[in-house]
Amino acid sequence: MSSQLRAKAFLFDLDGTLVNTIAAAERQYTIWATKLGIDPKPVVEYCHGVRAIEVMQKFTPKGAKITIDDANEWETGFSNDSEGVFVLPGIPELLKKLPKHRWAIVTSGVRAMAEARLRQMDLPVPDVLITADTVTHGKPHPEGYLAAASKLGFRPDECIIFEDAPAGIEAGVSAGIRTIGITTSYKPEPSTKRMFSSMIIMTFWWKSRPTRRSLKSRC
């Protein structure tokens, strides 16, 4: 039996949720880690859904300094890396159906990178775009999603979040917003799935076949 999830507004993560950028992110962090002489594996495992400056601060060797310019340089390399990057199936059709005042993007990337990636993939830039350089606290802090809901003019309980990374899912849960975990791009560890067992794990199949749950926006 199918069921419906109703919401007045939809809040989307960008990388891994609307656009599969996993390969590019992992490639760019591997390059960065290799230059520093550190093992890229833990960096790659941690980076999904987290702001670049926070990834760098966590893994930069003791004594070395990381500045916002370093993070911006990484963001530029990431946005220019389009190899293996693609829009997830059904996303263009979905976004075209949503009224502009009913959806937003909340990303851990900076605004310049986010806008460049959206245009690169021929996707619309939403009126409400919350980025790494417009919040004080990045994911898993709920600030970004709460800001998006507020700017759209809706309460948290009137929204639904679509996320693919543990940090983003935690941000949504902490914000008190219904959060749907998308497994299309990033494949979470079993422990992560258990942590968010109350969330809905699904993939986007808007174009190729019907979903088991239909999502409707209340007018």
Automatic annotation (TrEMBL):
InterPro entries: HAD-like_sf, HAD-like_SPP, HAD-SF_hydro_IA, HAD_2, HAD_sf, PGP-like_dom2. It comes from the Eukaryota. One of its GO terms (molecular function) is sugar-phosphatase activity. This is Putative phosphatase.
